[in-house]
Amino acid sequence: MIDDKTAEEFATYMEKYNDLYEYLASVIQKHTSSSHPVILDLGLGPGLLSVEIFLKMPQATIIGIDPLIKMLQLAKGNVKNADYQTFEPIIGISENIPLKNSSVDVIASRFSLPYWTQPNKSFKEMARILKPGGKVIFEALNRDFPTWKLLLIKIRMLFNRAGQDVTKYHIDAYKLAHTIEQVEQFFTNAGFTIIEKEGKKNEWRFIIVAEKK
Ligand SMILES: C[S@@+](CC[C@H](N)C(=O)[O-])C[C@H]1O[C@@H](n2cnc3c(N)ncnc32)[C@H](O)[C@@H]1O
Fold first, then answer.
1. Structural domain tally of the chain?
2. Parent domain of 100
3. The whole model's pTM is what?
4. In ligand 1, which atom is closest to the CA atom of 110?
C-alpha cells in the first residue's frame, strides 16, 4: 500500500497521460452493449479511467472499488469535477468484492493486478458479480517487458518529474506483474472465455477482454 502523498503524486502524474485512459475507455465502450450499463472500475485509483468512461457513456452507472481511502477521495474529486451523478466509490478489495451476484454488466481494471494477493480468488469474484454474457476489460503490466527497457522508463519518469516515490511505485509493480499467459490462465480457471487480446509478448502492457459464459 502506498501513502497518501504518493497517491496524490501518482494522480497528478497520471493526469498527463489522459490518452491512455481515453483509449482504454474506447475499448470498454466497444464491448458494452447495454444503453444504461453498470460498470465496475476495479482498483479505481484516482478515478481517471472512470472520468473517461463517463465522457463516452454518460448514461452509465460506475462503481469504483479501491482499498485506499485516499484514492477514493481523489476519484470523488475527479469525477465530481466532470459533474456526473451516478458514481459510487466503495472501499473494498478484488478478493472479496462487496457487490451482489450477477449485478454488473462490465468490469474494467487497469494496472491493479500486481497488488492482488490472491488472483485466482479475485477472478472468481469477478465471475460471480458479472451478469451472464458480461465482459471484463483487463489492462495489465507485462512481466515479460525487458529489464533494460524498464530502466529507460525509470529515467524518463524521473525526467518528466514523476518524483522518486511514484517512479518506485511503478517500477516495483513490474516485479509483481504477470505474463499474458498467466492472466489468460486466471481467466480460464474462473470459467471465462477470452474474446480479444491486444499487446505483444514483450510490450510494456497488454489488454485482455473476456466474457462470462
Ligand atoms: C497503479 S494503481 C492504478 C489505479 C487506476 N486503475 C489507474 O490506472 O489509474 C493500482 C490501484 O489498485 C489498488 N489496489 C491495491 N490492492 C487492491 C486490491 N486487492 N483490490 C482492488 N484494488 C487494489 C490500489 O490502491 C491502487 O489504487
1. 1
2. 4-212
3. 0.97
4. 6
